[in-house]
Amino acid sequence: MTDLSAFPIASRWPAAHPDRIQLYSLPTPNGVKVSIMLEEVGLPYEPHLIDIGKNETWTPEFLSLNPNGKIPAIIDPNGPGGKPFGLFESGAILVYLAEKTGKLLPADPAARYETLQWVFFQMAAVGPMFGQLGFFHKFAGREYEDKRPLERYRAESQRLLGVLETRLEGRDWLMGDEYTIADVATLGWVRNLVGFYEAADLVDFKSLKNVPAWLERGLARPAVQCGLNIPARS
User: Fold this and answer.
1) Which residues does the UniProt record annotate as the domain GST C-terminal (predicted)?
2) N or C: which end of the chain has fewer CB within 10 A?
């Protein structure tokens, strides 16, 4: 049996199936990237709910695997060299799983780097900006009398949607005909912006053509539908 005792997180969230990839997450836009990816590539895994509301990401056990204190994180019992391997940061996990399985990341070097470019675009721009807009539009930030931050993030989110709209012109997916980790990385954030954050009208989402069609195609994928609810919330 695989021994995960070297990882303190496994003592707080014990593995019932230590021979499977251990996923420590919550169904947020960053969290569902990895559950969707695992569903897409078909690797066996065991999800563990990390309750942000209970500050579980700041426990010593979680921080021992992810010092950034954010979801998600994984342990692969069959990592490089056949040894258990822990990894955090959703973008890095997507690349790792793609390379491990040979799926959702083009083998051609130019296409590979172009795909990574769009993954990094999500990580450096779409995620942070949409998240801040959600804070100022739906959460505590909406109570701020100064609306300049809200306007700043609204304008930037609209700009980023415009970048995606242009990229998707004549394309089914961000890389064209091929669904890749770039789409996996970005779908959850656009879904949250117009759904959970209730910001569709704020960013004039209905004025777009390509992004809504891409989002609809992505959400229709069985792996996406499944991954959006993993780990199940208690």
Assistant:
1) 108-234
2) C
